[in-house]
Amino acid sequence: MASLWSCMVLFLTITSVVAAELKPKGLRVGYYRYTCPSAEAIVRKTVETGLARNPGLAAGLIRMHFHDCFVRGCDASVLLDSTPKQTTEKDSFVNNPSLRGFEIIDRAKSLIESHCPRTVSCSDILAFAARDAASISGGIHYQLPSGRRDGRISIDAEALQNLPSPFSNATQLIQSFARKGLSMQDMVILSGAHSIGVSHCSSFAGRLYSFNATHAQDPSMDRAFAAFMKLRCPPGSASRTGPDPTVPLDYGTPNRLDNVYYKNLRKNRGLLTSDQTLMSHPSTASVVAKSVGSPADWAAKFGATMVRMGSMDVLTGKKGEVRLNCRVVN
Ligand code: HEM
Ligand SMILES: *[C@@H]1O[C@H](CO)[C@@H](O)[C@H](O)[C@H]1NC(C)=O
Ligand SMILES: *[C@@H]1O[C@H](CO)[C@@H](O)[C@H](O)[C@H]1NC(C)=O
């Protein structure tokens, strides 16, 4: 009898653990199956059209989802426009002018509202759009649990407080992700997103011109690569108040989400301090080496980690709201 009971308890424990895995924090795959069956297809189509016009927006959407999730959870707080009373995350210097792809979210939202009004949240639309961007730009496909609801608060200063800095070293990056419940490995795997998109010169010009008291140039940057970057980011241009040109984060395959990012790091061709520093720490360097060695394994982990990042501090059930316009609270 006792053993029957322990069997039952074990069984119930296992099923609830499995259920918790399948439904992170109340999210589930196919959440809109009955309430808005076309939701995911509409987002997919809208992202396809948008990326056909401008492939660079794949990077914009993936970064936008990351910047949403790290600040108050994935609640579409990054999509809210500033008001006379409150400057929002969107207008923090970490997001403005660099964050891009908002029109794709607006277009998907208005199409979805015309099919199924007041049903699909902006935070889910953004999460779907980032997923589709990874699928189109990298052939990385994953099922995405949904059921997020939208928050009503967005404060500019919280973006800088919660997002990691491009000037961070590996230890600081590990800490920044740990505060969000993500591991060292998660951090290195997600940094692979820097295999697409661009950076403004101001985000790394210090590595070219003013590294420290004894070295003008960061010795951890390949010299030929640095010389080339100086041409793209001439002195004086590379500040937020100057013209501040942009350059691809991954020169090899700038629109392809792949593991070339990690190969670049091994050649000292990481663009940001926060990229190249992954080679400076034995634990992060070993995840870099594995990602170079097995692209398929990196891609699978990237998808799984995006799903976990996408369930960070989400609002579900009766919390939050389903915004009618992603730029303003209801
Ligand atoms: C590890 C810490 C990270 C730091 C310090 C960081 C910082 C940055 C910076 C400074 C830029 C360039 C912005 C500019 O100057 O225009 C950038 C671009 C980008 N980041 Fe990150 N990032 C990090 C992690 C991530 C993660 C986790 C993702 C997504 C999963 C991501 C996705 C992107 C993408 C796709 C771009 C290119 C955006 C575009 O072309 O519009 N980053 N990041
Ligand atoms: C990383 O940065 C922190 C804070 O600036 C510093 O205390 C630490 O020594 C740095 N770590 C390494 C390995 O450089
Ligand atoms: C400048 O950076 C180099 C390379 O990281 C280092 O060896 C040197 O000690 C640093 N100099 C100063 C003054 O911090």
Number of helices: 14
CATH class of the largest domain: Mainly Alpha
- Spatial separation of the terminal alpha carbons: 57 Å
What small molecules does this complex bind? Answer: protoporphyrin IX containing FE, 2-acetamido-2-deoxy-beta-D-glucopyranose
Q: Sheet with the most strands? A: 2 strands, antiparallel
- Examine the secondary-structure arrangement and name the CATH architecture of the largest domain: Orthogonal Bundle
Would you identify the regions where 5 or more consecutive residues have pLDDT less than 50? 7-24
Roughly how much helix do the residues carry, as a percent range?
40-55%
Count structural domains: 2
CATH topology group of the largest domain: Peroxidase, domain 1
Strand-residue fraction? Answer: under 5%
Structural class of the helix and strand makeup?
A: mainly alpha
Please give the number of β-strands. Answer: 2
User: Which outline best applies?
Assistant: globular
Subcellular location: Secreted
Family: Belongs to the peroxidase family. Ascorbate peroxidase subfamily. Belongs to the peroxidase family. Classical plant (class III) peroxidase subfamily.
Function: Removal of H(2)O(2), oxidation of toxic reductants, biosynthesis and degradation of lignin, suberization, auxin catabolism, response to environmental stresses such as wounding, pathogen attack and oxidative stress.
Catalytic activity: 2 a phenolic donor + H2O2 = 2 a phenolic radical donor + 2 H2O
